[in-house]
Specification:
The complex is a heterodimer of chains A (275) and B (384). By secondary structure, chain A is α/β, with parallel strands linked by helices. Chain A has a single domain (27-274), classed as Thiamin diphosphate (ThDP)-binding fold, Pyr/PP domains (Rossmann fold, 3-Layer(aba) Sandwich), CATH 3.40.50. Chain A contains twelve helices and eight strands. In chain A, strands 2-1-3-4-6-5-8-7 form an eight-stranded mixed β-sheet, with helices on both faces. In chain A, helix 3 crosses helix 8 (182-194), helix 5 packs across helix 6 (108-117) and helix 6 (108-117) packs across helix 7. Chain B is α/β, with parallel strands linked by helices. Chain B is built from 14 helices and 15 strands. Chain B has helices spanning 7-17, 32-44, 57-69, 80-85, 87-95, 120-123, 138-155, 180-186, 210-225, 227-242, 267-280, 298-305, 325-334, 357-368, and strands spanning 2-6, 22-25, 50-53, 74-79, 101-106, 131-134, 159-164, 172-176, 249-252, 259-264, 285-290, 292-294, 310-315, 342-347, 378-379. Chain B has a seven-stranded mixed β-sheet, sandwiched between helices. In chain B, helix 11 (267-280) links the parallel strand 10 (259-264) and strand 11 (285-290). The chains are: A alpha/beta (275), B alpha/beta (384). Chains A and B meet through loops of A and helix 2 of B. The structure holds thiamine diphosphate (TPP), iron/sulfur cluster and magnesium ion. Magnesium ion (MG) binds at residues 57, 99-101, 128, 130-132, 139 of chain A.
């Protein structure tokens, strides 16, 4: 990161209060936070107009470190807390940071319903394919065959594709990026924030400590390279045979549609009923 | 076999020795290592059981409703927010009369986030109809799990075994791990009175109207109250089989005591030291340790506490608008006595704050000095 970039991030941190942070050196969470800050800065949003809500997990620590309106909620329920905020203050930019376990295991129901309802929230899901914070248990995105502390002999369940789930559930905007593709991530987050309706950015990230270590994936740098090697742009994937995509993941924008947004529709109903 | 193990591992061994058949759980600090170890035991064959890590605590307990209804010994473990998320299903397990055992690592509840020892989580579930047992040591944790299955299956009611976060869950102590044969003799295979059985089809979970719902609830109550007698017998049998003595509530140096301090969980070990120190200072202090909290063993509590002048209950929980939970139960237990001790309340150790022998002694000296107000808890160590 160049000096200018670091300086920009520092503008948004709660320096005196919450540091040092809890993340392991080399964790992808910091890159996601950096990208989010750059996107917010580029869009020129006022700090006070941003609400950052999170669930529980390593990724869920993100709002703790930044100087926005922040709300750290219970495990899996971040989207419901955020829904309440959006109903009352529809003009605020409400961003919700979750882990893969948080968003699609314990909070899976809220996730599909927020998407279906098309409420104007920006959901950022850090997908490290594991429960990082509680010590490496398998999550709904842990790949088949991988090891976890609750699957020492290989995982026998099949992984969700978070982004495809979001598309099917009706989200207006869905993108998948990775912590290796940081600049691309900045752009995805900008689009997601600007989008009216429920938007999802799934970020493939490395948890070398709880996931990589048990699956012989090496240090953070090696895991980063892995993200680079396994990512296929959506446009390119369309030209490939399904077999060629085995073990890879696509990056890019999976959905970008315009449809009525919950809060606006609700205002219309209220206006109509008054007459 | 004596081994140095953590409280969470004591639970895993208890579950293994009880030959549990289905374990379903969701990870939460500080419970996590229990289920990780059980997952490994199931996969490696050390325990002939099925383990599933589900998508939330609510699902964890709900899955056990299925396995227990199918007629097998079932187990889960959780803590704090996880236990709270189980609330709906906790009630259901009791109503469905399923002898599930749950280990709860006592941890503070949010908001704000705190992962350390505090008994508010299980206290808040005291009206779900589960039998509740509180433990002081890793040995007691292991033994209590085995005894819990015997009690649960006898009464067809669920049992929750609780112990303090980190002070036990992550602290190593010497534990005598019983051998399988002795446990098998003490705890025979589970023979459910009814279960899912194709030869004898039944309907479970049906609708019951006003003409019978009351009676149904009465039966739960009656059987839960029977736990007092049944658990005493089980403690007796346990002692005969394993040589370790347990009671529904335990007392220490109460015979000539003028003040008795009441504790639950690990504060008890600290309070024992305080009792000896108090006596060196000329205060005739005794100790009562709560073990069985649901149902409340009224008679036993009255027998231990009834004769002294003053009782002080230390609660590692604080319910807004109520105060300590244990003290209110002690007060109502003692109320029918014609002559009863004055019962003081002290709040200490919330959210994992350390409670030392000096703290317990300080609380007791405050009560002994006559300065304590019976209407207001002693908020020990509270920073103004
Ligand atoms: C009701 C409840 N159950 C369990 C937990 C424990 N817990 C905290 S974080 C977490 C999982 C974290 O995994 P993930 O959401 O993928 O986030 P990561 O740490 O990987 O970023 C769990 C199970 C909790 N806080 N609350
Ligand atoms: S445990 Fe994994 S996800 Fe959590 S901070 Fe460490 S590397 Fe990151
Ligand atoms: Mg994760």
């Amino acid at each position: 990161m160049d000096h200018k970039g670091t300086k920009l991030i520092h503008k948004y941190l709660r320096h005196d209060k919450k540091f040092p942070h809890v993340w392991c050196p080399g964790c992808g969470n910091g890159i996601v936070l950096g990208a989010l800050i750059r996107a917010i800065d580029k869009l020129g949003l006022k700090k006070d107009d941003v609400v950052m809500v999170s669930g529980i997990g390593c990724s869920g620590r993100m709002p703790v470190y930044v100087d926005f309106n922040t709300l750290h909620t219970t495990h899996g329920r971040a989207l419901t807390f955020a829904t309440g905020i959006k109903l009352v203050r529809p003009h605020l930019h409400v961003m919700v940071v979750m882990g893969d376990g948080d968003a699609t295991a314990i909070g899976g129901n809220h996730f599909i319903h927020a998407a279906r309802r098309n409420i104007d929230l920006t959901a950022i899901i850090v997908n490290n394919q594991i429960y990082g914070m509680t010590g490496g248990q398998h999550s709904p995105t842990t790949p088949y065959g991988c090891k976890a502390t609750t699957a020492m002999y290989g995982h026998i369940e099949h992984a969700f594709s978070i982004s495809e789930l979001a598309v099917t559930a009706g989200a207006s905007f869905v993108a998948r990026g990775s912590v290796y593709h940081a600049q691309m991530l900045d752009g995805m987050l900008e689009k997601a924030i600007l989008k009216k309706g429920f938007s999802v950015v799934e970020v493939m990230s490395n948890c070398h400590v709880q996931f990589g270590r048990r699956n012989q994936m090496g240090d953070p740098v090696t895991m980063m390279k892995r993200l680079k090697d396994h990512a296929v742009r959506i446009e390119k994937a369309k030209t490939m045979e399904p077999g060629e995509l085995e073990g890879k993941f696509t990056i890019g924008i999976l959905a970008d549609v315009d449809k009525p947004v919950y809060t606006e529709e609700y205002e219309k109903i209220r206006e109509g009923a008054k007459r | 076999m004596r081994q140095v193990i953590k409280g969470n591992h004591a639970v895993s061994h208890g579950v293994r020795l009880s030959k549990v058949k289905v374990i379903s759980a969701y990870p939460i600090t500080p419970q996590t290592t229990i289920v990780e170890e059980l997952s490994e035991m199931c996969a490696s064959g050390a325990l002939d059981a099925k383990f599933i890590k589900v998508e939330s605590e609510h699902s964890a307990l709900a899955a056990l409703i299925g396995s227990a209804t199918a007629g097998v010994r079932s187990f889960t473990a959780t803590s704090s927010q996880g236990l709270l998320l189980m609330h709906e299903v906790l009630h259901w397990v009791c109503g469905a009369r399923l002898p599930i055992v749950l280990a709860n690592v006592n941890r503070a509840v949010g908001a704000g986030w705190n992962i350390w020892a505090d008994q508010t989580d299980s206290i808040s579930q005291r009206d779900t109809g589960w039998i509740q047992i509180y433990c002081e040591s890793n040995q007691e944790v292991l033994d209590s799990v085995i005894m819990a299955y015997k009690l649960a299956e006898k009464l067809m009611l669920p049992v929750m075994v609780s112990y303090d976060a980190f002070f036990l869950s992550h602290t190593s102590e010497v534990v005598d791990i019983p051998d399988q044969d002795t446990v098998d003799q003490f705890l025979p295979p589970f023979e459910p009175p009814h279960k899912v059985d194709f030869a004898d089809p039944r309907m479970f979970g049906g609708m019951i109207g006003p003409e019978i719902y009351y009676e149904e609830r009465y039966c739960i109550h009656k059987d839960a109250m029977a736990a007092i007698k049944t658990y005493s017998e089980i403690c007796q049998q346990f002692q005969e089989a394993f040589g370790r003595e347990y009671a529904l509530a335990e007392s220490y140096m109460v015979d000539d005591a003028e003040i008795i301090v009441v504790t639950a969980g690990t504060i008890t070990s600290v309070a024992r030291i305080a009792v000896r120190k108090a006596r060196e200072k000329g205060i005739k202090l005794g100790l009562m340790k709560l073990r069985l909290f649901r149902p409340v063993p009224y008679e036993l509590w009255r027998g231990i506490l009834g004769g002294v002048n003053k009782v002080v209950v230390i609660d590692r929980n604080l319910i807004g608008g109520v105060g300590g939970a244990f003290v209110s139960e002690i007060r109502s237990a003692l109320f029918p006595l014609e002559k009863r001790p004055v019962v003081y309340s002290a709040i200490a150790g919330l959210g994992g704050r350390d409670v030392t022998p000096a703290d317990v002694l300080g609380i007791v000296e405050h009560v002994a000095s006559g300065k304590a107000d019976v209407d207001t808890p002693i908020f020990w160590g509270l920073k103004e």
